[in-house]
Specification:
six-stranded parallel β-sheet; seven-stranded mixed β-sheet; 19 helices; 17 strands; globular; alpha/beta; 495 residues
């Protein structure tokens, strides 16, 4: 709680947390996490863009810099900020808590404000971590800037008027109601705050990867999904096209990654965006995340004409039973149709898959492997089921005794290094799933079709020796991982 003492704010740092010490991830192969992509912290850019109109703000992306905790603390100490804003996921609350602890020892007057997806799940637990001064639930674009205003004025009464703010009033914790941020007139994020040379995807080669959003939230209720903002809001088509035009004018050879949870919910808006791109004759390359339904031929034609390069689909499974149980609201028929249309109009696809749901049999997993071959995506990402905090699947596992207690809540209250969600499957099952996951990657990325298509792509485009060696390295890593998994599974069965 403020003591009606004004704070002179000379520097604000917005921090994207390092990976060191984050939750151990045995759900996704290391090669898929480390080698495939590095994206910018777009959410922090939105917060920074609002605040920098009135305060000196710096965005520190230590993931891009490949810093660990020690390097991050040393860098922050050199900057000596008055306020540090942190965007945090549940995966990274240990590095967050450790950085706050160490920085507070060196800079005890620095104020820490924590936002991001984790605080919407565990706001009070976050506030109770040592060194945390304020928490912002929900979207913090404007709330963070308003908090800076209150701090600079020393007006403690102003804290009660900041949407989503969580703070202490003596022994009492105050939680203000969250605000639904309108996206009607969102300012373009100031991308000059980052060095965009650090960001890349394996699929986009030499192109400059630039991210944006055209909407926020997802109205669907998939049982495994940890997207907690269900209030879907879309930007007007003209604003989306304006930002795309701005990006093209600012970057050489950009590929724009439209980072919506789901881009194609409103069919008319999609067509209006494509028409706006056509009318302005923008030479665009862009990608987006979409659902397999709605996804019709007219939409695909218009998106292709507007420069669509690749669509990311959450397919999840090749089992109809699994699709129904996870409340995906799409069928295999929808998926087949979507991928056929993309192939017809030469649009690349990236398909996401999950194996290891509680009810799945080996045949269900084989259905998924066969389905990958049937729909012929250009790229895939696959992982075993990750029971994320407060998802319906996680709650069901607790309810049925598969997970003995709410481990995520305990972890949120007392973060530990490399936290591993307690195993809810047998050792035999885990080893089997790990091997099948490697098999999925092996069958796909070392298949004759994939290798042949990539060789043709390298010949038709400018050949890059470094990109060629990247592919060779990735192939070796996948093969090695599969062999290790096979041996581990065999040794487990012999016990």
């Amino acid at each position: 709680m403020l003591k009606n003492k004004s704070l002179k704010i000379s520097k604000v740092v917005l921090l994207n947390l390092p990976e060191e010490g984050q939750c151990a991830d045995y759900y996704t192969p290391d090669y898929a996490i480390e080698e495939f992509s590095v994206y910018p912290p777009l959410g922090l850019l939105y917060v920074a863009t609002e605040a920098k109109k009135f305060y000196p703000v710096e965005v520190l992306d230590v993931v891009a810099l490949r810093y660990g905790i020690k390097e991050t603390v040393n860098h922050v100490e050199r900057l000596h900020p008055d306020v540090i804003g942190i965007s945090c996921t549940t995966f990274r609350i240990f590095p967050m808590s450790e950085i706050i602890r160490q920085v507070k020892m060196k800079l005890p007057e620095t104020i820490f404000v924590v936002g991001g997806p984790h605080t919407s799940l565990y706001p009070v637990e976050t506030l109770n971590l040592p060194g945390v001064d304020f928490v912002i639930k929900g979207e913090g674009d404007r709330s963070f800037k308003t908090l800076l205003d209150v701090l600079s004025l020393g007006n403690s009464e102003g804290l009660y008027n900041i949407p989503g703010l969580v703070f202490r009033e003596g022994e009492r914790v105050v939680q203000n109601r969250e605000d639904v941020v309108s996206v009607e007139n969102l300012p373009f994020p100031d991308r000059r705050l980052l060095n965009w040379d650090y960001y890349h995807t394996a699929a986009d080669k030499a192109e400059q990867v630039v991210t944006m959003i055209s909407s926020r939230g997802c109205p669907f209720q998939c049982t495994f999904c940890d997207v907690m903002i269900k209030n879907y809001r879309s930007r007007p088509a003209i604003d989306v096209v304006n930002e795309m035009e701005h990006i093209v004018s600012e970057y050489d050879n950009p590929v724009i990654q439209v980072f919506d949870d789901t881009f194609n919910i409103d069919r008319k808006r999609v067509l209006d965006i494509c028409e706006g791109i056509r009318q302005r004759k923008l030479n665009l390359k862009w990608t987006t995340r979409a659902r397999a339904n709605p996804f019709d031929e007219e939409m695909v034609v218009k998106m292709k004409e507007a420069g669509l390069k690749r669509v990311h689909f959450g397919v999840e499974s090749g089992s109809e039973t699994t699709l129904k149980k996870i409340n995906k609201s799409i069928s295999k028929e929808h998926v087949v149709n979507a991928f056929q249309l993309c192939r017809k109009y030469q649009i690349d696809t990236l398909a996401y898959f999950i194996i290891g749901f509680e009810w799945e049999t080996k045949e269900d997993i084989q259905d998924t492997i066969r389905f990958i071959k049937e729909i012929k995506p250009t790229f895939i990402m696959a992982n075993t089921l990750y029971p994320a905090a407060k998802t319906k699947i996680y709650e069901e596992l607790i309810k049925h005794g598969k997970i003995k207690e709410d481990f995520w809540q305990k972890f949120a209250s007392n973060p530990v290094r490399n936290f591993n969600l307690p195993q809810w499957q047998s050792l035999k099952t885990r080893k089997y799933l790990k091997r099948k996951l490697d098999e999925i990657y092996l069958r796909f990325y070392l298949s004759p079709d994939f290798v042949s298509n990539n060789l043709k792509s390298d010949v038709s485009e400018s050949f890059s020796l470094s990109h060629f060696f990247y592919k060779v390295k990735l192939a070796i890593i996948i093969v090695k991982s599969y062999v290790v998994s096979l041996v581990e599974e065999f040794m487990t069965l012999r016990r």
